[in-house]
Amino acid sequence: MPKTASRPAYRCTECGWETAKWVGRCGECQAWGSVAETAAPTVRAAASPVTAKAVPIGEISVEESAFRTSGVAELDRVLGGGFVPGAAILLAGEPGVGKSTLLLEVAAQTARGRHRVLYVTGEESASQVRLRADRTGAVEDELYLAAETDLGAVLTHIEDVRPTLLVVDSVQTIGASGLEGVPGGVTQVKEVAAALVRVAKTRNITTVIVGHVTKDGAIAGPRVLEHLVDVVLHFEGDRNSRFRMVRAMKNRFGPVDEVGCFDLGADGISAVADPTGLFVEHQSGQVPGTCVAVTMEGRRPLLAEVQALVTPSPLERPRRTTSGLDSSRVALVLAVLQQHARIRLHSYDVFASTVGGARLHEPASDLALAVAIGSATLGVAPPSGVVAMGELGLAGELRRVRDLPQRLAEAARLGFRVAVVPSDRTRQGPRSPESWTVDGMRVLDVPDVASALRLLQLTSEPRLRAAEEGSAG
């Protein structure tokens, strides 16, 4: 039999950090006055009966763990094929981003496939969820709804309904009676999550748990919560845009570099199989200060339009304003353009943004940003049907980007005629290293940003002199 011996211990009520003596400030989360004494039993483990005999791994059947579609293609893409029976999935996101709407749609689609679903809500009443279900068309006979905040009651509902899919919204609102702390605390979250995962594994129920996030964007609660589950998904989106993305941060059954795209509207959420149209504005004529970049979100190439506006500044320190772009990358591109491309920007305000709420943090969008800024400075539009991709170095050189064939294929599919890319000196074959063709699209590789701007006729000498004279005036 296990032998236990109590010893005094102190634990932080905020993060669960433990220490042998009392301190006024937590050594983990740096919170003041959160360390309190608790009884921490010391357990000496002993041999006990096993639940199942160990067998060779080759004799274990995988048929019971086959993927089953969730009914939402974009979510299946992120999960690696769909739901796995017995899997525990943690979905986290900011308040109001659409987590409950997405999971209600997934629950309805699963119920339409003649699978029983139990949706447990601890944040809303049952009637409030029903109102949203009426609005989004998610009312199904096999979809059961319960509003509970007690873990024991949730486990009783699972016994009665025996669902194939369980949705718990959210883990921070469920509490276990007889356990210290309030719902959402470290101890409560650990116990509730462990109990739900245990039920999912023993009864082969796919369980989706909603988790809150902190102001820094991290999942609220102890870090062990992410270790307990099989899949961790982050639901991202801008409040000013309808576009939403689900990104896999951990996945024991599939890749972690996939993203799913969704459109959140008044009548619910829908999958977006081709999101490029949301980020590229098709202009009837050529417009100065615009260029299209090809970025990678996971393993999916996305095209996004970059816009720039350059105006004379009346200020001693010109403004540098960005939207959807990394301000440090924009500052780097401006410095390289001024030093290596003879584009003087020290007396100009520069505004750079993306179209449709896209967020570009990949260095591969540097060249498109440089082309947009150069075009805006001279007031000359780049040639129509051009995409640019490449990372910009401090010496003005262009560096190769990953997954270039996939990017070029996506641009060609969408009808672009010319692509400007960094030089690849390792390419072999009879084709010229400066130009080749991909699916009818001409690809031009250049060694540096100055060559790229010259190739697009954005740095001709008369235009440069006119720009410099206007700056001096």
TrEMBL record:
| GO cellular component terms, semicolon-separated | cytosol
A single Pfam family, by name? ChlI
Binding residue positions for ATP: G93, E94, P95, G96, V97, G98, K99, S100
Annotated Gene3D superfamilies: 3.30.230.10, P-loop containing nucleotide triphosphate hydrolases
UniProt KW Metal-binding keyword: yes
- GO annotation terms (biological process): recombinational repair
Among InterPro entries, the record links this protein to: AAA+_ATPase, DNA_repair_RadA, P-loop_NTPase, RecA_ATP-bd, Ribosomal_Su5_D2-typ_SF, Ribsml_uS5_D2-typ_fold_subgr, Rubredoxin_2
Assigned keywords, A-Z? ATP-binding, DNA damage, DNA repair, DNA-binding, Hydrolase, Metal-binding, Nucleotide-binding, Stress response, Zinc, Zinc-finger
Record motif RadA KNRFG motif, residues: 250-254
Chain ranges of the RecA family profile domain: 64-213
Specify where the region named Lon-protease-like lies, as residue ranges. Answer: 349-473
Q: What remark about domains does the record contain?
A: The middle region has homology to RecA with ATPase motifs including the RadA KNRFG motif, while the C-terminus is homologous to Lon protease.
NCBIfam families from the UniProt entry: sms
Q: What does this protein do?
A: Plays a role in repairing double-strand DNA breaks, probably involving stabilizing or processing branched DNA or blocked replication forks. DNA-dependent ATPase involved in processing of recombination intermediates, plays a role in repairing DNA breaks. Stimulates the branch migration of RecA-mediated strand transfer reactions, allowing the 3' invading strand to extend heteroduplex DNA faster. Binds ssDNA in the presence of ADP but not other nucleotides, has ATPase activity that is stimulated by ssDNA and various branched DNA structures, but inhibited by SSB. Does not have RecA's homology-searching function.
Q: Which family does it belong to?
A: Belongs to the RecA family. RadA subfamily.
- What's the protein here called? DNA repair protein RadA
Lineage at the top is: Bacteria, Bacillati, Actinomycetota, Actinomycetes, Propionibacteriales
Name of the gene this protein is made from: radA
